[in-house]
């Protein structure tokens, strides 16, 4: 059972075949960065066409049982997620709609301040906004996982604590291994895992020690250190593979529609594009290298199976269905909006 | 020359006739609270129909000269504004588009955190966001006035300082006269006026001392105190008149689409609706009462004329056109986004 919990490749038959060659059973694919609701629906439509066209290679997964079906039929299950809340625009009612359409993960922010929380590129972080608290509760209700991969530290800790259900950092690495703005400090990872959440390790060079030159051993040793600190059962892969994307795509990711100036994000004026991937992880075909690397640094068979996919599978199992009403009543934090008549 | 720089009435022939009876030469009307771009265009369309239907009573104003035409033809000039940046969604390119369509004021926030800045109902305020700084510069460029009436203190001060052109608080009163969350502390008013900005006094009962029971004398005495502190030339009227609106409208203003729970805003569970207006300002017909009240508390003819409309007229004159390119080059603050290759 191998699962990659974050990819944004330039999808093609070639890549879907590589998923099969690499024996990747499920991939969480990003279908929105800055797209509004209608634009996101167009992306669902595009995937529906691919599911029809490549039905021998891929199928949609809405519940964890769909991944079992995919395995039995030698296909890769595709799960949908957003790296920004832009698909719900300013409308809390769209949370249930996008879940119904198939979205299973939504970041509360990309790099900037959103209506819900603060992104990791803002100068300051006020945590969850008024709308943010309302939306997290609604995501908990319907079974849409809160993803804080691109959010600032305080916002991430507040989301982990405020959320009634476990949240995820789908694609990032520990800051103390590679001090990138996008990587996570120990207190942030701790807040996520102590609430039952997951951390998916990223293979995106800007998140790696020595960037594109990072070795498999260095990467897997980092995973071993993280397992010692936080427990291997909370760890998985979220490779952030952006295979075959032109540099215009990373410009769109960084700049969307919010600025007329160039924002280089994790890059810089002299390295504005996508960095080359490490030679040992260039496509889905290389998934097996990760398993070998994990065994080499001393993970046993069970721990390795967990990190390679089983942990995400178990997380999906408890995350994608609607929360039982009783639980909601019991666990709902007191409303921020209630006011008595003296107010 | 009488100008009301903020109304959101339930528009009708009756109200347009009352504008004429009250000799109101220009009204800045709100056409968006939570509307997205397309919904805002529908509101422009509705006004186009009213301009056609009631061409003897009202006309659109895009530049200050249109107000002169309105006066010469005994009509009321209508200016458009937004109380939220929702019409530009996440798209800085829409700033120039909405200005071209006729928008002349835009609040960077309503009550909540926006993509641009922090609203006065949030627990904390981080000031202008990354997108906020980009959008303020673009508003300066095209001639769309930054309005901070519903914004939090730090965001308002930062906007006043960061903006290359004077900004406005179109409808609020001093906090020390009526300590409402929506009213403004002296340091906030100071930041706006010292940059050449304007403060429009609100007649909305939740912003008044003694609310609906506030007297004309108390209101005008407050204006006199404010003129002593900040200078009469920075003051005008922004009545926030919501005449003939059903309570469902104030619910929409407060809750938009961001919450499934009731938010009472400035009201409360036992006073959820629109409060009754003071008896001396129930409609546009009562505009003359303000002039009498201002003279009674000792304002001279020139000061009174300024507060009743001339100050807004002069502000419009320098605010609605595109900024000269040279000025932009000279005054543009250094970009937040520039990064050298060491980054």
UniProtKB/TrEMBL annotation, chains A, B:
It comes from the Bacteria. It holds the Pfam family Peptidase_M19. Keywords: Dipeptidase, Hydrolase, Protease. GO terms for molecular function: dipeptidase activity. Its EC number is 3.4.13.-. The keyword Nucleotide-binding does not apply. It is an enzyme of class 3 (hydrolase). InterPro entries: Metal_Hydrolase (IPR032466), Pept_M19 (IPR008257). The keyword Transit peptide does not apply. This is Membrane dipeptidase.
């Amino acid at each position: 059972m191998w699962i990659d919990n974050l990819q944004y490749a330039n999808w093609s038959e070639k890549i879907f075949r590589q998923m099969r060659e690499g024996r990747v059973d499920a991939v969480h694919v990003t279908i929105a960065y800055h797209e509004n609701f209608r634009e996101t629906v167009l992306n669902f439509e595009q995937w529906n066409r691919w599911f029809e066209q490549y039905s021998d290679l891929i199928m949609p997964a809405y519940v964890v049982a769909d991944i079992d079906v995919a395995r039995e039929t030698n296909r890769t299950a595709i799960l949908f997620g957003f790296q920004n809340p832009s698909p719900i625009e300013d409308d809390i009612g769209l949370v249930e709609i996008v879940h119904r359409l198939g979205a299973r993960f939504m970041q509360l922010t990309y790099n900037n301040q959103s209506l819900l929380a603060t992104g990791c590129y803002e100068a300051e972080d006020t945590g969850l906004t008024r709308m943010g608290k309302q939306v997290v509760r609604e995501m908990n209700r319907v079974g849409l996982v809160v993803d804080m991969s691109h959010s600032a530290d305080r916002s991430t800790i507040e989301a982990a604590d405020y959320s009634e259900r476990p949240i995820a950092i789908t694609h990032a690495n520990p800051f103390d291994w590679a001090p990138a703005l996008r990587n996570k400090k120990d207190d942030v990872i701790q807040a996520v895992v102590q609430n039952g959440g997951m951390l998916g390790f990223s293979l995106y060079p800007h998140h790696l020690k020595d960037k594109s030159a990072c070795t498999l051993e260095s990467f897997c040793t980092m995973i071993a250190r993280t397992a010692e600190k936080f427990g291997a059962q909370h760890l998985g892969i979220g490779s952030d593979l952006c295979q075959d994307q032109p540099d215009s795509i990373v410009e769109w990711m960084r700049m969307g529609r919010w600025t007329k100036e160039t924002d280089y994000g994790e890059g810089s004026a002299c390295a504005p594009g996508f960095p080359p991937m490490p030679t040992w992880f260039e496509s889905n075909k290389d998934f097996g290298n990760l398993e070998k690397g994990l065994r080499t640094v001393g993970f046993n068979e069970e721990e390795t199976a967990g990190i390679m996919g089983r942990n995400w599978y178990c997380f999906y199992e408890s995350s994608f269905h609607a929360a039982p009403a009783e639980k909601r009543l019991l666990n709902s934090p007191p409303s921020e909006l209630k006011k008595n008549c003296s107010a």
